[in-house]
Amino acid sequence: MAALQILNVEKRYKSLQALGGVTFSVEPGEFFGLLGPNGAGKTTLISIIAGLSRADAGTVSILGHDVVSDYREARSRLGVVPQELVFDPFFTVRETLRMQSGYFGLRKNDAWIDEVMDNLDLTDKADTNMRALSGGMKRRVLVAQALVHKPPVIVLDEPTAGVDVELRQTLWKFISRLNREGHTIVLTTHYLEEAQALCNRVAMLKAGKVVALDKTSSLIRRISGSQLVVSLARGTLPDALKPLVSHPDELVSGSKYTLRVNEYSDVEPILATLRQSGAVIEDMQLQQADLEDVFIQIMEGEK
Ligand SMILES: Nc1ncnc2c1ncn2[C@@H]1O[C@H](COP(=O)(O)OP(=O)(O)OP(=O)(O)O)[C@@H](O)[C@H]1O
Fold first, then answer.
1. pTM recorded for the entire structure
2. SS3 166
3. Mutate to test the pocket of ligand 1, among 44, 45, 84 (most ligand atoms within 8 A of CB)
4. What is the CA(221)–ligand 1 centre distance, in A?
5. Which domain of life does the protein's organism represent (predicted)?
6. Residue from 19, 42, 209 to probe ligand 1 pocket by mutation (most atoms less than 8 Å from CB)
7. CA–CA gap between residue 299 and residue 303 (Å, rounded)
8. Distance CA 171, CA 190 (A)
9. What is the Cα–Cα distance from 129 to 143, expressed in whole angstroms?
10. ipTM over 0.90
11. For residue range 103-123, what is the model confidence (pLDDT) as tens digits?
């Protein structure tokens, strides 16, 4: 049974189609990335998964429980870390986490609450009022809140937006541990390096539609091949090579070009063309394309 199944989900805000028939499923134990530019519909989809918003059509289920008709069962299996920080300022961190446990009918939950606080470096702040915490600390509490009931499926909506390196590392260490222990993780992030390092599979959303759905490694291999990055000390890129440029703004901005190559044998003719044009190479490296290159290609609709 899928940890998360999304079937033909549609959502419209007046004339705007925010989700135009989204379908994918996430298997138990996966670390799954939901990627897309601003406005692609990621948060809308997460609100529907969390039962905070209703789809106009389609269904979502968590471990076989429909998020509308079987809301309580679905919700008890799900932990959501939302993007926005909303708290009751009068409670301490520990009180906030105890109350959240209460929502799920858990009374003697202090051992797990202590463990979660410890893993998120929150122990020192256990008795501090929420209003006295910094933004980064509040974000840690938001993560802790989503985990108090040890949900098998954990959804994180841009948990590292604007947070410092230390929190990112703390968070990923803990989330990766939970994933190793069998929890399913669904992550949205704009940090594609982070997604590439953590997610074994990703879906890319564009204007409310899934435009790519595959293993991270297959996407990188299938779409981009390798890249030859050349910096020119003299001359400009000959016209014959311009179709190979991966990032169109490089044609405007300068002397460094990222050229797509499918095979190593493509490199030789590129160098010959450059030599014949009189260009002088200052620096050159062959690199594997990364998820960001794939993302740019897909979002520009080049494929
Ligand atoms: N309550 C709402 N009323 C009207 N339009 C909305 C509402 N919520 C979202 N939208 C619109 O729906 C589209 C999808 O928004 P959504 O927040 O789901 O995107 P997102 O992929 O999460 O973007 P971001 O990366 O910026 O968080 C956007 O065009 C947004 O303006």
1. 0.83
2. helix
3. 44
4. 31
5. Bacteria
6. 42
7. 9
8. 16
9. 17
10. yes
11. 898 988 999 999 999 999 999
Q: What is the spatial distance between Cα 236 and Cα 250, in angstroms, rounded to a whole number?
A: 11
Query: Residues 160-216: pLDDT tens digits?
Result: 887 888 889 999 999 999 999 999 999 999 899 999 999 999 999 999 999 999 999
Crossing angle between the packed helical segments 135-147 and 110-119, to the nearest 10 degrees = 140
Q: How far apart are CA 108 and CA 79, in angstroms?
A: 19
What type of residue sits at position 205? L
- Helix, strand, coil shares of the chain, percent, nearest 5, are 40, 30, 30
Q: Specify the ligand 1 atom closest to the Cα of 205.
A: 21
Name the token pair of 249: 């703004």
Which of the pair, 56 or 107, is modelled with greater confidence?
A: 56
Q: What is the DSSP string of 229-293?
A: EEEEEES---GGGGGGBSSTHHHHH-SEEEEEESSGGGHHHHHHHHHHHT-EEEEEEEEE--HHH
Whether residue 38 has its Cβ less than 6 Å from ligand 1: yes
- In sequence order, which ranges of the chain are alpha helices (DSSP H)? 42-49, 71-76, 93-103, 110-119, 135-147, 165-180, 192-198, 216-224, 249-253, 267-277, 291-299
